[in-house]
Specification:
mainly alpha; about 55% helix
Length: about 80
């Protein structure tokens, strides 16, 4: 997340697909183990979101990347 500080300076806008993709990846990368709240949330997302097998941080739109970086910072307790 080398561009973390730069991305948080950008303005996020509402796009449900960006939000789902960003949070799916953030929850996948930053959960605290199988019994964590984040893992439970990731499991619930599977009821309504089926990601592309090609989904990766690199494939995110600019907006989704800002959302991803913000979500990871919050989950990891990093000051934004």
């Amino acid at each position: 997340m080398g561009t973390h500080a730069n991305n948080l300076e950008k303005i996020m806008y509402f796009d449900r697909f960006d939000i789902c993709e960003a949070y799916y990846l953030a929850l996948s990368h930053c959960h605290g183990g199988q019994w964590s709240r984040e893992y439970a949330r990731l499991s619930r997302m599977g009821q309504y979101f089926k990601p592309s097998p090609m989904l990766s941080v690199e494939s995110l739109s600019d907006n989704a990347r800002v959302i991803y970086d913000d979500a990871c910072a919050r989950m990891l307790g990093v000051a934004a």
